[in-house]
Design brief:
Order of helices and strands: HHHHHHHHHHHHHHHHHH
Shape: globular
CATH architecture: Up-down Bundle
CATH class: Mainly Alpha
Helix content: over 70%
Length: 403
């Protein structure tokens, strides 16, 4: 097997997870109306339910998939998930009822939980000082998928509501075949750990991983950070339309600009930043950049000025891989899959709760009888949450070199 191609496979798998979500977004309203015969309001309700189901499956199965990879290896988990993912997209392409779409989203959420296995694979092949930078590559791949997914999905939608699903199925199958030929196994007998259900469920995984020194506090930071970070995908479209009068095209371009910024920061800039500052200072720098960017966006009234702060917000994204690097150092080699699975579950819970928090905040401060008209209020809230992350992080003991 060609080990040089293993990292591109891992990164494309992560990008496919991210792209697969955005790929189907442009057609979901029309597809749900097609199978349910309801208007756009009813379609929005079903669309929200499908999103919640997807995130809930990631929460429930993130630790399970990660623990399976600790016991049976990363390679079979990653390749099998891609094969199942391909069949899942075929099911969505053929589904004639909302019930089958729900089943497909359940399966899709489980297969997307393999992001934990991809991160564990990167931890396996990385030296301790390289982990944060390599986790940054995963973040960059996710950012590129965030950019490419909606664009490709919108273009394919011209050929029908089912076309993006067929495209996603082909991509998943092709990547699975690619991985079959190039992906070596990294779990050896030295680090292999028998699978146990007590560690494979979210509560058991939280309890077990939380016993490692300092990880409970770091997991809390990861959760708060992800809730705050969700202000961009969660409320940006509504904020841009209300504050700057942007249409869908401009909103899409601005989100694409943000996604490219994340890809550049986490894929290119994070290595020199880590070499110069180290993980702890990178976390503080990233969080500080978020606070300044969110605070500025909350008050500026000119859309182009707001866009000027996008690179600063993208700089803030280095905090996430730096935190992952610190956490990975505190877990032993045979716990990497379980740790990354736990992080996946934390992210999933944040994804479930954050949209409600930021959209309700936006609604409260823009409704007709709002106490103060402040469409930027969600960004103020996110800045305060990030400030809380810094306060908690400063009280966290420094990372040991190994667990």
């Amino acid at each position: 097997m060609n080990t040089r191609l293993a990292v591109p496979f891992i990164l494309f798998s992560v990008m496919l997870d991210s792209m697969g979500i955005g790929l189907i977004m442009p057609v979901m309203p029309d597809l749900i109306q097609e199978v349910e015969g309801q208007g756009i309001a009813g379609a929005a309700v079903w669309g929200g339910l499908l999103t919640t189901i997807f995130a809930a499956m990631q929460f429930l199965f993130g630790p399970t998939v990660g623990s399976l990879s600790d016991g049976f290896g990363r390679r079979p988990i990653l390749i099998t998930s891609l094969v199942i993912m391909a069949f899942d997209y075929v099911l969505m392409a053929l589904a004639p009822t909302i019930g089958l779409l729900i089943i497909a989203r359940v399966i899709g959420g489980i297969t997307a939980a393999t992001g934990s296995t991809a991160a564990a694979y990167m931890a396996d092949i990385s030296k301790p000082e390289e982990k944060a930078a390599n986790f940054g590559l995963i973040g960059a791949a996710f950012g590129m998928g965030f950019v490419l997914g909606p664009v490709i999905g919108g273009l394919l939608a011209e050929y029908g509501t089912r076309a993006p699903f067929w495209a996603a199925a082909v991509l998943a199958a092709a990547n699975g075949l690619f991985g079959y030929f190039v992906l070596p196994e990294t779990v050896t007998d030295r680090i292999r750990r028998p699978f146990a259900w007590r560690r494979a469920n979210p509560l058991g995984a939280f309890s077990n991983i939380g016993k490692l020194p300092g990880l409970k506090r770091l997991m809390l930071i990861v959760f708060i950070y992800n809730v705050a970070f969700f202000v961009y995908p969660g409320v940006w479209a509504y904020f841009g339309a209300e504050r700057y009068g942007w249409g869908p095209g401009m909103i899409g371009l601005s989100l694409g600009f943000f996604g490219i910024g994340i890809a550049v920061m986490q894929g290119i800039m994070i290595r020199p930043i880590m070499r110069r500052l180290g993980e702890r200072k990178a976390v503080i720098l990233g969080c500080s950049a978020h606070i300044v960017a969110f605070g500025a966006i909350s008050v500026v009234s000119n859309g182009w000025v707001a866009l000027a702060f996008t690179p600063l917000a993208a700089l803030g994204s280095i905090a996430a891989p730096a935190l992952q690097g610190i956490m990975s150092r505190r877990a032993s080699d045979d716990q990497q899959g379980e740790l990354q699975g736990t992080v996946t579950s934390i992210n999933a819970v944040a994804t479930i709760l954050a949209p409600l928090l930021v959209t309700q905040t936006f609604w409260y401060f823009t409704k007709d009888d709002a106490p103060v008209y402040a469409p930027g209020a969600p960004f103020v809230l996110s800045a305060l949450l990030i400030l809380g992350c810094i306060v908690i992080f400063m009280q966290t003991p420094r990372t040991r070199q190994s667990a």
